[in-house]
Amino acid sequence: MALLLVPGPAVVYIVTRSVAQGRAAGLVSVLGVHAGSVVHVLAAALGISALLAASATAFTVVKYLGAAYLVWLGVRKLMGGSGPETAEVAAVPVSRLFGEGFVVNVLNPKTAIFFMAFLPQFADPAAGPIAPQIVLLGAIWIALGIASDGTYAFLSSALAGRLRRSAAARRRLDIGSGIVYLGLGAAAALTGEGRK
After folding, report:
1. What does the buried/exposed string (b/e) look like for 77-116 if buried means 16 or more CB atoms within 10 Å of the residue's CB?
2. pLDDT tens digits for range 95-136
3. Which among 19, 28, 2, 59 is positioned nearest to 164, based on CA atoms?
4. CA separation for the pair 20, 149 (Å, rounded)
């Protein structure tokens, strides 16, 4: 739980969507993020994450794709968003909320490396095949993640009523979240720089 509570790109995405569009948008974003977690769990169970960790080229490609996506989200927030003259927040379709959450998590190389490094520690070869154990541990992780990220969605949407009603506050939120996305993109791009 301690690892889940530390905010990363997925939590920033969930909080931003919850503040901008409310609880339902935040919860759809949570589902998208954890659909991405399913990809990482299956990759860890099949050993693909180990290949990603071992291949500098594969790691670099995924790293830069993830960083570029976060930077794109940040630039979009900074350039677009609601100006002070806009009275309403433009609703983002549910499919886009889900898809963006999915991509934010799938293209995060740190998440792939985390699943590859963390889950196998709790698998026991004496208990049988490793892959089903990894899938079970991953399912537990995803359930805890949905609870943790869902809490972020509920809390941020509950505290965001004034922000959604104020165009100036929404614009400040867009700028702040855009800067955070850019920072996360830069951090993702620098992940593993010392790796050989």
Report:
1. bbeebbeeeeeebeeeeeeebbebbbbbbbbbbbbbbbbb
2. 999 998 998 888 877 777 777 777 777 777 788 888 888 899
3. 19
4. 16
Q: Where are the alpha helices (DSSP H) in 47-129?
A: 48-54, 56-79, 94-106, 109-118
Determine the Cα–Cα distance for residues 22 and 160; give it in Å rounded to an integer.
Answer: 8
Interatomic CA distance for residues 195 and 191, integer angstroms? 9
Whole-model pTM: value is: 0.68
Residue position matching structure tokens 């050993």: 47
Q: How many CB atoms lie within 10 A of CB 48?
A: 17
What is the mean predicted confidence (pLDDT) over 48-56?
64
Residues 6+ apart with CB under 8 A from 15: 7, 26, 152, 153, 156
Dist. CA 194–CA 49, nearest whole Å: 19
d(C-alpha 193, C-alpha 60), whole Å:
9
